[in-house]
User: What shape does this take?
Amino acid sequence: MQQAANSVAIVTGFPGGERPPRNLTILRLNQVKAITGLSRSTIYARIEAGTFPRQVKLGIGARCVGWVAEELNDWVIEQIATRGPDHVSKHDGGNK
Assistant: This one.
């Protein structure tokens, strides 16, 4: 991590040279369950299957974890996209 001239830390060296996600908010399991409607066991099964964002360890111990909000948002958008173009949403006035 580098220090900018105004003493704000700048994140560098993100894995793979990628830029960090825009929303770095960390969500805990209860929040993830509320957003997705999935149970704990389903979330972890989908992580194992590679179809759900992996959790981030929030400390030295592996017991405290969370999910990056932006990665979860991207997953939700992907799920919505799988409905197909024939889906009529009450939020878009029924326009296809």
